[in-house]
Design brief:
With about 160 residues, the protein is of the alpha+beta class. It has three helices and six strands. The longest helix is centred in the C-terminal third of the chain and has 31 residues.
Length: about 160
């Protein structure tokens, strides 16, 4: 089971197991199965991002692929409390990573044929341009699922409110 974090990006706390269980009961009562769906979506997107994340070049740094983070947060701002999901990378340089190994969102990773085809069978393909790993592997897939998750949360909340 993933942890629920209270707070926001600048200041947050991770709940211990007893507090986590209590908060989950409250959220489940308000949202039905939407919390589980949110957790599964976040886990799936994080797994895909981790699999496609290019490995850093410097052996002196911890590999940025190993610094992927994900979770669910209860956040409060000027509009009140809300439930939010996050996927990111804790490496300080993660946002700046560009690589030709990163596939554009919605496309497969570039394929390298080994061994190469004989010269007469090779097809000239332009080199793919280096893309930002953070945008293509985290931001775009997450944004694409936001409206679907929000609609499910709305359905579950309406269903819970009608049954009360």
């Amino acid at each position: 089971m993933a942890e629920i974090t209270l707070g926001n990006r600048d200041a947050s706390i991770v709940l211990d197991s007893r507090q986590d269980e209590y908060v989950r009961k409250v959220i489940k009562g308000a949202t039905g199965s939407a919390l589980r769906s949110l957790e599964l979506t976040v886990a799936s997107l994080a797994t895909q991002a981790r699999a496609g994340w290019p490995v850093g070049k410097s052996p002196t740094h911890k590999r940025s692929r190993d610094q992927m983070v994900e979770g669910i947060r209860l956040v409060s701002d000027g509009q009140g409390p809300y439930l939010g999901a996050y996927i990111g990378n804790d490496a300080a340089w993660a946002y700046y990573i560009r690589s030709k190994k990163v596939a554009a969102y919605g496309r497969n990773a570039p394929v390298t044929l080994t061994p190469p085809l004989p010269l007469d069978e090779q097809v000239e393909q332009p080199d793919p341009k280096a893309l930002h790993a953070f945008s293509e592997l985290i931001r775009k897939p997450f944004k694409a699922r936001e409206s679907e998750l929000a609609a499910e949360l709305q359905r579950e909340t309406t269903k819970t409110a009608r049954s009360a």
